[in-house]
Amino acid sequence: MEKKKKSEWFDWIKALLIAFGIAFIIRMFFFTPIVVDGPSMMPTLHNGDQMIVNKFIYDIQNPDRFDIVVFHASEKKDFIKRVIGLPGEHVSVKNDVLHIDGEKVKEPFLQERKEDMHSYQTLTGDFQLEDLPGEYETIPEGYVLVLGDNRNNSTDSRMLGLVSMDKIVGKTSFIYWPLDRIQIIHDD
Length: 188
Hints:
The chain is of the alpha+beta class. The protein has one domain (32-184): Umud Fragment, subunit A. The protein is built from four helices and twelve strands.
């Protein structure tokens, strides 16, 4: 009887250790939670939204335009922003219209916000890539240009400069908390 109890305890401890080990590996290498801090991605993301970050996606593919990414803005702070410019591209905004290599590009995720604004207001102040820190003419390989959806209240590439791919933690598109905001965010 005593041996059976010890064996049962050992089996439980072993199962728990394996479960914790798997959870640790998944969190370290594949997925991790993050909480949105601030209004810079409004109305797409709200302050306090809790999301899952896919940490391995950019090991197997490059970012796409309009992906929402988490990156290390400093040693202690991660930011959530949207990829706007990709390597080899020239980015500018004029009269609230995004231009990539001189071509107009629609930003459907901003439409709701633009409709709520007065005709004399602009969401995104005019800028071009050369105006940003680094004064690049095109985005170099291994970098992306990121902007928040709430362009008037976002610390993004316009202040920080381009974001190196090695600073990107991963892509996020799933809000799991609060319950009334559970959704998958589409990139378009």
